Amino acid sequence: VSLQRLKAAVHYTVGCLCEDVAEDKAMQFSKQSIAAISEVTFRQCETFAKDLEMFARHAKRSTVTTEDVKLLARRSSSLLKYITQKSEELAASNMEQKEKKKKKSGAAKGRRISEEQEAAVTESEDSNMA
């Protein structure tokens, strides 16, 4: 994705958010204001991306984690609270999915074991008859 497309996407999103606020507060945003907000937002996102990369690198990792994102958000208590809440929800959801997979694979293993036991019983009955 090109830099221009990313900037255009940010500009579009900022425009939509400004429209929502304008309707809610019965006010207007000039095109210049929307452009300025878009530019500041894009630059802040670039800074965030660089900071996240540095946090991961400092921890000798090549992957950004939720802990890096929380560190980035530390100066905004409401944002940090929101990110922490969403992180915990994702962790809980991931645990539930892992448990479901374990149960499914455990049930499949149970069926395989019972099929193997059935085959062994059948074999032993066959050998008894001979």
UniProtKB/TrEMBL annotation:
InterPro entries: CENP-S/Mhf1, Histone-fold. Its main location: nucleus. GO terms for cellular component: FANCM-MHF complex; kinetochore. It comes from the Eukaryota. It is found in: Chromosome, Centromere, Kinetochore; Nucleus. Residues 100-111 have a biased composition (Basic residues). Residues 91-130 are annotated as: Disordered. GO terms for biological process: cell division; DNA repair; replication fork processing; resolution of meiotic recombination intermediates. The keyword Nucleus applies. Keywords: Cell cycle, Cell division, Centromere, Chromosome, DNA damage, DNA repair, DNA-binding, Kinetochore, Mitosis, Nucleus. GO terms for molecular function: chromatin binding; DNA binding; protein heterodimerization activity. PANTHER family: CENTROMERE PROTEIN S (PTHR22980:SF0), CORTISTATIN (PTHR22980). Belongs to the TAF9 family. CENP-S/MHF1 subfamily. This is Centromere protein S. It comes from Eubucco bourcierii (red-headed barbet). The lineage of its organism: Eukaryota, Metazoa, Chordata, Craniata, Vertebrata.
